[in-house]
Design a protein that fits this description.
- The chain has one domain: Roll (Ubiquitin-like (UB roll)).
- About 10% of the residues lie in helices and about 35% in strands.
- The protein contains one helix and five strands; from the N terminus they run ββαβββ.
- The protein has a five-stranded mixed β-sheet with strand order 2-1-5-3-4, with no helix packed on it.
């Protein structure tokens, strides 16, 4: 299915947000996800289903000084 991820159209086979994070090999610990303009809590990723055309913003936080 086609998803808009960080402004780019991407193709994915993921059914849920957690599957998408695994597919993209992202770090669960430093990630915040906005799905269709709503921040999704990490405990909801496994039950939040994705649909054709959904928009996601994946924000990775990096510490440093």
């Amino acid at each position: 299915m086609q998803l808009r991820i960080n402004g780019e159209v991407e193709t994915s086979n993921a059914v849920t947000i957690v599957e998408l994070v695994k597919e993209l090999r992202l770090d669960f610990n430093s990630l915040v996800i906005e799905h269709n303009d709503q921040i999704i809590r990490q405990e909801q990723w496994a039950v939040t289903t994705l649909r054709e055309g959904d928009g996601l913003e994946l924000l990775n936080f990096v510490g440093g000084g």
